[in-house]
Design brief:
By secondary structure, the chain is of the alpha/beta class. It has ten helices and 14 strands. Strands 5-4-6-7-8-9-10 form a seven-stranded mixed β-sheet, sandwiched between helices.
Length: 324
């Protein structure tokens, strides 16, 4: 199945594999099966992707979402706030995650060995269980570049390295959380020609929240670049979407975004209509590939998508099955 997932070439193949994964998870995932049973939905009645039930993402906080009996190799956790429950993604085959992010990066950005990878992820490095840190650490290693690495509090050294690498014409990926990137340009202004600046979101209470346009305008000016790239990922996913500018995201071939009606969680929206973001991540073969997120967004005609915000109070309206 891994071979099929990572070799999807077109929409027909995606639908075939997605329906097969749905049948597998209906059979082997107790939490997902109970959810489908409460909706009176059975695989025999599902013939297209839009009819597959999407599991509310909150279940990763309260249940073991597993479609495999294999031993758990990694447990990824969300950051959460003090006193709040955190999401746990139990991963029984870490190779699925590695294949997904390495193939995904190559799909959008090419060979990782061409890059120096500089990571500015302080609030993620301060805790264990971050899927983002796991991915970036592996990208740093796979770059085979001795100048690649993480930066926590030493942003002055990072600033010097950025300037030196860019001056040499070295292709560089600077990936960081929003507040840390803002701290960096507060220290120094840049005029980068060979550097991709990628934000992963997150102010984490360190700075006032701001809309994407405002954030990207500040970062573009501070780094001297024409576009700010973004990564769309979360603890509950083993795949990522990427934006190369203006907050327009694309997904790799084994991932798909749909939106649902905000008043009726079981109704899938037409394209270009705002709604709750539903995610199909086929790399989640051993957990759940069909997730109703707490994000609001819009899918365009070419299947690119935008993230427009989050549901108020993190509630998914129109679905009261959280008491499972």
């Amino acid at each position: 199945m891994q071979h099929k997932i990572f070799n999807i070439q077109n929409a027909h193949q995606f639908s075939e594999v997605a329906l097969a994964v749905f049948q597998h998870q209906f059979k082997h995932n107790k939490v997902y099966r109970s959810f489908c049973d409460l909706l009176f939905i059975h695989p025999s009645e599902v013939s297209k992707v839009e009819e597959i039930p999407f599991l509310p993402i909150q279940f990763f906080k309260s249940r073991k979402v597993l479609s495999s009996l294999d031993e758990i190799q990694e447990t990824f956790t969300s950051s959460g706030t003090t006193g709040s429950s955190v999401s746990k993604h139990l991963v029984t085959d870490i190779n699925l995650y590695k294949q997904s992010y390495l193939r995904g990066f190559a799909h959008f950005y090419g060979d990782i060995t061409e890059y120096t990878v500089l990571a500015l992820l302080p609030n993620y490095l301060e805790r264990n269980g971050s899927s983002l840190v796991f991915m970036v650490a592996d990208l740093i290693e796979k770059s085979k570049n001795t100048e690649s690495g993480f930066y926590l509090d030493n942003i002055q050294e990072l600033a010097k390295k950025l300037v030196a690498l860019d001056k040499r014409g070295q292709k560089t990926l600077l990936i960081g959380v929003s507040f840390a990137l803002l701290d960096l340009i507060a220290l120094q202004k840049f005029n980068l020609k060979h550097t991709t600046v990628m934000e992963t979101g997150g102010m984490k209470g360190r700075r006032k929240e701001m809309i994407r346009e405002e954030l990207h305008t500040l970062l573009q000016s501070g780094f001297g670049v024409s576009e700010i790239h973004s990564e769309y990922g979360m603890t509950e996913l083993l795949s990522q979407g990427y934006s190369k500018g203006k907050g327009i995201f694309e997904t790799p071939p084994w991932m798909k975004i749909l939106t649902r009606d905000t008043e009726d969680a079981l109704t899938i929206n037409a394209l270009e209509k705002n709604g709750g973001i539903n995610i199909i991540d086929l790399a989640n073969y051993n957990s759940c590939s069909f997730i109703a997120s707490q994000d609001l967004g819009k899918v365009h005609q070419n299947e690119t998508f935008e993230v427009l915000g989050r549901f108020d109070n993190s509630d998914i309206r129109g679905c009261n099955l959280m008491v499972l």
